[in-house]
## 1
Amino acid sequence: MSDEIQEKIKNYRTAPFDARFPNTNQTRNCYQNYLDFHRCNKSLKAKNQDPAPCEWYRRVYKSLCPVSWRVNRKEGNLWILRKVE
């Protein structure tokens, strides 16, 4: 492997444990961090402050949420709001 890839693997960090979501199913954890990121971003931008502290939430939800969910969200199909039949 190249040195760049080895460095990325060495520095990789996944989402830490969150006591609010102790179960194996991390769907709500993913969704809550997604909401927290956007709320934080909106709040800090409204106050003309740097939204850099919100990046933690972005990293966590990107770590927890499957890529297909993020793609669907970009297309306007928010998976959490889908009607289950």
## 2
Amino acid sequence: MQNRAWQEVQELLLNFQSETSTDARYAKHDLVKTLLQWHSNWLSGLLDSQVFELMSQFAEQGPYWVPRAAGTAMRDEAA
């Protein structure tokens, strides 16, 4: 059960298009920045290196940043 809950949180944090309002995007960005600022030591050991890198990029780039692969997937779905 605990593993499933963590997986759901991870999926939500990495879904860069789940928030449609500006406030929600900024709140998610602030949460990720705070998690990395205060807990990066144990998060880097807990998370897959690619997941940790995505979270780091999101924290650095801002609330409207979307990984290139996610943007490509969106365009493919629209076609």
## 3
Amino acid sequence: MNRTLKIVIYAVLVVATCLFAWKFVHAYRSMKPVQIADEDVPEAVENVTTNAARSTNVAASPPSSTNLTKPALASGTNAAVADTNTPQRGLATAKRLGREGASFVQVIGYGGVMLIVLICLGVMLAHDFSHIVAERFTQFILDDDGEARKDPAYERAEQMWANDEFLDAIQLMRDYLKEHPQKLYVALRIAEIYEKNLNNHLAAALEYEEVLRHRLLPEQWGWTAIHLVNLYFGKLDKPDKAVALLRRIVSEYGETAAAGKARSRLAQMEGEPPEAATEEAAPPEPAPPPPEPAKPASNLPKGFRPRSK
């Protein structure tokens, strides 16, 4: 991924995280606790029941008393008012509950979006962090000019190589590699000595195969594999292994420059029209023009020419 694009994605994710976190906190603080009903609704219901019972008692009494009828009518009037107010209170409570339910949905929505953005941000951070750690580790174990080169044990092996004592140098390097298995440049150095100084290409190929079993940077792995392919084709005469390794480079490390070289090599092996056929198909060159006839020599002195007719 492009570095600029990655920075833009990081900025968008951070801004989105802050925005939805603020909205989540704001919605959560503005959300009120849900109330089932008003506090005065039960009292209104009790008043309705009491007044209804009172009016019933009055209706059962004899109509001889005029004074008893008026309170009954008043009680009946109060019951009607209570019955009218009760649905209004219930409607207000339902509206308030509806507003509080929408606020709760907003809190859940903001929280969910914030969680998704945080997961995306965490995945990108984990990927980049692991890539940086792997790159630093690979540079450390493959650095030819690092501090490991100053190790006395390894310097002793290099001194043996400088004195043309190649087998002793390889043995010292193997001992050093056993103590420091992460120093893969030592294995590459052993393969180089086998190939260039001892002309033991089979041993060099085995060393390169061992190096390719470790986790390397894509470009480092690809070019090491290309070098091994050249050994398979040239010195060891193992085309099957070479073709298999070329296809592995293309399939597993297709974005590297070594993969481009592997593709071109495979295309050449699959068969292209040879240059000879191209030359035969070319049109023949035209014959050179005949030479002009020589003019007769003149007997006139130098500086004179014959008169034109």
